């Protein structure tokens, strides 16, 4: 049985990545099912919201948000007879990944979270590249000033 741990936060984006992967997995392992471990990464609440909302209300919101996310993804994965396990992420993702890899030996990890513009997602494993290359990064103010100078020269 093929085991895949998938981190997700947006159903449409995740399905765009999972459906082709599911088709490839089925073609490679004829007759075998896949064990999907879906890990929902709920969006962070702002500091201002968390001041006014109790811990139990936050946990309740996180659980209902995850239920809606899983309701959109699980039927597509179960359609071919695959097994699906759902988990709600709490705490640091590398720690959760280590725990899940210990539980599901030989599993692969897929980060299917949708990165928003200007936002860096935390890595899900300790050895995952962060995408930061300090030699090529340009601060936003410098890029904006360059665009302004190009427009002004015209």
3D architecture notes:
With 154 residues, this protein is an alpha/beta fold. It has one domain (2-153): 3-Layer(aba) Sandwich (Rossmann fold), CATH 3.40.50. Helix content is 47%, strand content 16%. It is built from five helices and four strands, in the order βαβααβαβα. The chain has helices at 11-28, 47-52, 55-78, 93-103, 140-153; strands spanning 2-8, 34-40, 83-88, 108-111. A four-stranded parallel sheet has the order 3-2-1-4, with helices on both faces. The protein is globular.
Strand elements, count = 4
Low-confidence runs: none
| N-C termini distance | 62 Å
Q: What name is given to the CATH topology?
A: Rossmann fold
Question: What is the class in the CATH system?
Answer: Alpha Beta
Largest sheet: 4 strands, parallel
Cα-based radius of gyration, to the nearest Å: 19 Å
CATH architecture: 3-Layer(aba) Sandwich
Helical residues, percent: 40-55%
Elements, N to C (H/E):
EHEHHEHEH
- The count of domains is 1
Q: What form results from the Cα inertia axes?
A: globular
Structural class: alpha/beta
Strand order of the largest sheet: 3-2-1-4
């Amino acid at each position: 049985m093929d085991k895949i741990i998938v981190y997700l936060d947006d159903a449409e984006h995740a399905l765009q990545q999972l459906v082709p992967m599911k088709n490839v997995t089925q073609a490679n392992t004829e007759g075998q099912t896949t064990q999907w471990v879906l890990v929902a990464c709920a969006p962070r609440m702002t500091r201002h919201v968390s001041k006014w909302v109790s811990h139990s209300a936050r946990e309740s919101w996180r659980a209902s948000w995850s239920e809606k996310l899983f309701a959109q993804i699980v039927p597509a994965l179960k359609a071919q007879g695959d097994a699906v396990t759902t988990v709600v992420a709490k705490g640091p993702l590398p720690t959760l990944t280590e725990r899940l890899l210990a539980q599901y030996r030989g599993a692969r990890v897929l980060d299917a979270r949708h990165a928003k513009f200007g936002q860096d997602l935390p890595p899900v494993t300790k050895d995952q590249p962060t995408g930061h290359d300090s030699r090529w990064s340009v601060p936003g103010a410098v890029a904006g000033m360059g665009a302004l100078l190009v427009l002004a020269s015209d």
